[in-house]
Structures are given as structure tokens and as C-alpha cells.
Automatic annotation (TrEMBL), chains A, B:
The keyword Ribosomal protein does not apply. Residues 32-51 bind DNA. Keywords: DNA-binding, Transcription, Transcription regulation. This is Transcriptional regulator, TetR family. It comes from Paenibacillus jilunlii.
Length: 195, 195
DNA sequence: CCATCAATCTTAACACCGTAAAGATTGTAG
DNA sequence: CTACAATCTTTACGGTGTTAAGATTGATGG
């Protein structure tokens, strides 16, 4: 399939992928550089030709998972015209991603070193949040929300979605209902015609 | 102060306390059984007389921190008559606790093994959530909210508070405003007279 | 009062971990 | 074909959790 540039396979890519599948199957705690190397049939120091240390491998794995995350988020709102519906779909997709892969939440938000400056909304350092903001602001504009309250509404929305995902995947919270229902509890999404 | 039952001090208690302070000062990642033992001036296997393994020590530490957490939460609403004000104060205290001790969020919700069944609200297995629910339900009743929507409102509220705490302490989110402001974005807390 | 016992702590050993240094292998460029 | 650089292996070191065995000591009962 892919080119095998040197005497062994494309190790860098294989390390990232088996590292991710190891976390999926065995959990974050039982991840180790040496186990990943062993599963790739290389010596335990071979990874050091591709990554400075284990944190760099984890960072690369994090980027890979974030890309999958972004893919899911993008697809969820693809072609959706109603901007209010879009933000609900996006929130549901956000939560669903971590329900499908319970290990990812802890992995992503524990090891990634993400820093988001909420005082400076033009900094798009974390892609999922950037997409979330774009989609939310589009809706805020469409319903004529005063621009001064954009940031508050955005943070409230994202915190709730993020909090639900956190509780679901890290603290054994179980709930049989539809998470989407909760978004309507926010004033911005509490449409008049639904009342 | 406390009894010193055997040839050395009250090691069990000292292990828990120095373990917690180690996490506070050096971070969750650099915590280890051997370092805690060393800081207590005992051999690295002495803790095994008090804990079956390192996870049991961590669990004991978690319980201790949860008690501190509950203490802060209780004090925050002590003597507050206005139930709507109480839930805001409680949310603020929840967030403030993790702002004051940034390492605690990851420590508490990563290692504690908390399980909360949101389909069965009478299970008070996690004290902070039990207090949150009691306070919230008291407010819901006072404003005449239909009982059917209690659970939705509660989860929305707690998820948002928990999500803010998560973003603040694990993902380098910074915000100079007052977190309390966000609670009013929920329909239940969006009082008519403020509009 | 002292022998016994159980709780507590220490020493030694093991497997696993991340990492560094040195050398072997091999694709590629001059 | 020779030199070089990228890649991988071997070896070694200190740190980690855990177990097993033995030492120390507070408490108990004859």
C-alpha cells in the first residue's frame, strides 16, 4: 500500500496507529512505549528514531485522534441549512465521539497540552473549538442575538457539551435519554415555537 | 495530637497527606508510591502495610480530597435563604475549588472510579452531586418548575459547571470574567426581572 | 514479668518502564 | 562503488510497582 522508505516498514505511522488502538483496547493506563514497539515487531528503542521521547509519540497520536474527531464533527453538520439545528447536531456529535471511544476523552484532554484563550476569540488553536465557535456564531447572528453576549453563550454551550462528555467517559455516568434534549435548556436554543 | 499506635508515627495518615501535597506541588504525573514513602522517611514498601497497592492509596487520597471539596461546597451555601442564589453560589464554589487546586480535577475524576446513575436519582453515591441535586431541586420547587423537567435541568446545570472546571484546569483555558455569569444562560436561572 | 503474637517496617529481588549511548544495517547520493 | 545519513538493535542505567522473607516492636495473656 504505502511506500516502505527504509529497510523496515513505515514505522512512524505504524507506531501512531498501534499506539491509538492500544489505548482503545487496553485503556490509557496500560499504554507504554515498549508495548507499542513490541506490537510493531521492533526493538523498544526503535521509536526514538521517529520521536524524541514518549510524549512526542503521544502528541502525534493526539493530533491523529483530533483529526478523526474533526472529521466526525464536520460530517455531522454537512449540508445543514438551519444553523440552530446545526449547533445541536454538532453538540450531539461531540458527545457521541467520546461515547464511541470512551478512552479518547482522557487521552485527548489530558496529554495534548491544549491552551485556549477565551479572552481572545480569534485564536483558533484548537480546531474543534474553532468549528464550534464558527457554527455557534452563525446561529447567534441568524437569531439576532446581541453581539455582546456571543462569548457567554458560546462558552455556556461548549462547557455543557464538554462537561457531558467528561462525565460520561470518565465518571461512569449512564443516561438512557437523548443528550440533544439538554441543549434546549439554554435560553438561546429554547425556541418559542416549541413551548 | 493523634495517637501513635506503633513504633513509628501514624503512617497511614501521613502517606495520604504527603501524597496529596505531592500532587499539589509536583503534579499528578510525578506522583509515585516510592516518592511518597521517601518523603515520609520510610522504606518504599512500608505503605504495603496500610494499603494493598498504590491504587488503594490513591483511592484514600481521593476520599480525603472529596471531603475537602464537600466542606467548601457546604460552606458556600451556608445560611443562604434564596435557593436560586444558593445554586449559583454552589456552582461558583465548585469551579473555584478546582481553580485553587488545578491538579485536583484530573486526580479526582480520573482515579476515583465514581459511577453515577442518572436514571436513578436516589443513588447518592457521589456526595458533591448529591448536594448539587438537593440544592437544585429545592430551587426548582421554589420557582414552580414542572417536576418532569427536574432531571434535565439538573444535568444541564451540573454538566456546565463541571465542563467549565474541566476546561479551566485541564486544557489551559483562561477567562478573566466571572464564571457565575454563565449560569444565567440556563432558562431556569434566567430570571424575568433581570431582562 | 515475660513469652508469644500480630502489626509494622526493612531488605532483597523481580519485571516493567523511559531513556541514552554505541554499534549494526541499509537505502541513497556523489 | 564509496561515503553518508537514516533507521534499527544491543546494552546499560535509574526509576517504578509489587512480592517474599526477615527484623523490629507494641500489645496480650499466662
Amino acid at each position: 500500500m504505502k511506500e516502505k522508505p527504509y529497510h523496515h516498514g513505515n514505522l512512524r505511522k505504524q507506531l501512531i496507529e498501534t499506539g491509538i488502538s492500544l489505548i482503545n483496547e487496553e485503556g490509557v493506563k496500560s499504554f507504554s512505549l515498549r508495548r507499542v514497539a513490541a506490537q510493531c515487531n521492533v526493538s523498544h528503542t526503535a521509536p526514538y528514531s521517529h520521536f524524541k521521547n514518549v510524549d512526542e509519540l503521544i502528541a502525534a497520536m493526539g493530533e491523529h485522534v483530533t483529526e478523526q474527531f474533526m472529521e466526525k464533527l464536520r460530517i455531522s453538520i454537512q449540508g445543514e441549512e438551519d444553523s440552530s439545528e446545526a449547533i445541536s447536531l454538532l453538540g450531539q456529535a461531540y458527545i457521541d465521539f467520546f461515547i464511541e471511544n470512551p478512552q479518547y476523552f482522557q487521552f485527548l484532554f489530558y496529554h495534548s497540552g491544549i491552551t485556549i484563550d477565551l479572552d481572545n476569540y480569534n485564536s483558533d488553536n484548537y480546531p474543534p473549538f474553532a468549528l464550534f465557535r464558527t457554527t455557534a456564531y452563525h446561529m447567534f447572528r441568524s437569531i439576532g442575538l446581541p453581539e455582546a453576549s456571543y462569548s457567554h453563550q458560546l462558552i455556556a454551550l461548549w462547557s455543557m457539551v464538554h462537561g457531558i462528555a467528561s462525565l460520561l467517559t470518565n465518571n461512569g455516568v449512564r443516561y438512557s435519554g437523548n443528550w440533544r434534549d439538554f441543549f434546549s435548556i439554554l435560553t438561546v436554543l429554547d425556541k418559542e415555537d416549541d413551548k
